[in-house]
Amino acid sequence: MEKQILDFSNPVGDPMVEIGRLGLIEFCGKDKFDGVKELKPYVEKLFNNYIFNTAKTLNQVFSDNSKFTHNSSTNDLKKRYKNTIEYFDNFIEQKYSGYCMSCGDKDNLSNVEKMIFPLTTGDKNVNFTSNFSSNILMCKACMSSLFFSPINMKKVDWGKAFPISNNHEINTFWTEENIEIFKSNIVKNVDILPDSRINIFENFIYSTIEELQEEELFGDITFYLISNVDRNTKIELVHVYEKQIRFIHQVAPKFLKNELPTKQKDEWNYLIFKYAYKERKENSKKVKFQEEVIDNKNYKSTMKYFNPLISNFIQGKSILYYFKKNLCSWNLTTIYLKEIKGMREERLNIIKKVADNLQLFNEDDKTFYTKFVRPIEMTKSQTEFREKLRILMRKFLSKSDEPLFTADEMVLYILPSGESWYETKDILLIALYEKMNLKAETIENLNEGDNDE
Ligand SMILES: [Zn+2]
C-alpha cells in the first residue's frame, strides 16, 4: 500500500459523503491522516461497533445486501467482521482513473458499490446523484467517509435524517451531539445508532431548529430523510431558511419545558401546543397524549404528535390562517409577516391604520363585529372585498373629516397588484379582532346559522 495523505478537512459536494466526513472527523478526533495505515485502526473500531453491537437500522444507510447487514453471515459475526475489513481493503487497493464524483479529485479512485452508497440501489432516485452510472468513482477519502455516515444521522420515522447547512458551526454542532450519543450508546449497551425518538419528519426538523436557535446558531439548512433498504430507496428533502430559525428565536426562545404556555405569556408556544393537542382525533391517541404530555408534564413529547401548524411552517406554507383563527396578537402577526413573508412595514402600518380608524364605529364589540367585521369576513373575491372597503370608506367620511384611506394607500399598500387580496383581508381581520374583546367562541356563536367555513 503506497503512502498518501488522506485529507478530510474540506467540505465535499455530496450530502451523504459530507455527513460521513463530519462523522469521521469527530469519531477520529482529527481530519488528516498520514496514509491509510493511520486511518485503518479507526475503521476497524467502527466496523467492530457495527457488527458486534446492536445496530438495527444500519440497513437504512447501507442496504440489506451489504457486507455489514446481509443475513448469510448473521451467525458468524467474526466472519462478517473479516469480510467487511477485506471489503474496505479492496476499495483501498483499487486504482481507477477519472474524477471523484464527490470532491473532484483525480485518479487513484475506488469503484464504490451501490450497496454502501445510499439512494443508488433503487430505480426511483437514479437522478439524485449527479454522476449516476453503474460505476461510482470516489477518492479514498470520500469512499472512507461513506462508511462513517450512519453514526452521523438520526433515526426518524422510516429512515435516517440529517441536516446540511451553509453555516459550518451548525454541521459541527449536529455532529458533536451525534458522536456523543453514539459513544454513550456503546457504553450503555443499547442500539448504537442515534435515534431522534420522533416519527414525524417536520416535527424532527422543528425540534432541531429549536435546539439550534437556543445555541444562537443560524443558517440555511437542507434536511434529508433517506432510506436505502433494497427496492425501497427513498428520499425526502426539506429546505429551511435562516429567517425561519430567526423567527423562532424571536417568538419562542425556549420550548415548552416545565409549564404549559399561555396565550398572554408565550403566544407562539401556546399555538404550537394547541395544535399538537387538537390533532388527537383517535381515542387511543387521546389517552396517550393525556398520560404522556399532560399527566407526566412532559411537554416536549408533544413533538410525537402530528401538528398542522409545525408542518405548514416547516414546509414554508402560510400560517396566517392559524393566527386569524386564534385571534392572535398584531405583534406576533407582524413579526411573522415581516420576517418570514418579507412584507413591507409601511403596508402593515396602513392596514393597521384602517382597522384603527374603523373603531370610530365601535360602540360595543358585538354590534361592531356583526355590522362591520362580519361583512369583511364574508367577502369571497377581490372585487367583493374592494367593494366592501369602498362602502366603509363612504360611511367613514360621513363621520370623519379624514378619509379611511387615501387612493394611493389603496393602490400601493392595501391592494397592490401582484399581492394576495385574501392575505390583506386576513391581516385586516387580525388587526380588527385585536381591537375587540371577543373570544373565538363568542364569534363562532354570533355566526351560528350561516354555514361559512
Ligand atoms: Zn473525493
Protein model, in words:
It is built from 18 helices and 9 strands. With 453 residues, the protein is of the alpha+beta class. A 5-stranded mixed sheet has the order 7-5-6-8-9, with helices on both faces. A hairpin with a 2-residue loop joins strand 5 (154-156) and strand 6 (159-165). Helix 13 (345-357) crosses helix 16. The protein starts with 5 loop residues before the first strand and ends in a 7-residue tail after the last helix. Residues 100, 102-103, 105, 138-139, 141-142 line the site of zinc ion.
Helix and strand topology:
Elements: E1 6-7, H1 15-28, E2 32-33, H2 36-52, H3 77-93, E3 110-112, E4 136-138, H4 140-148, E5 154-156, E6 159-165, H5 168-188, E7 195-198, H6 201-214, E8 221-227, E9 234-240, H7 242-251, H8 267-278, H9 283-295, H10 308-314, H11 320-325, H12 330-339, H13 345-357, H14 365-377, H15 382-399, H16 407-414, H17 421-435, H18 440-446
Parallel strand pairs: 5-7
Antiparallel strand pairs: 1-2, 3-4, 5-6, 6-8, 8-9
This protein binds zinc ion.
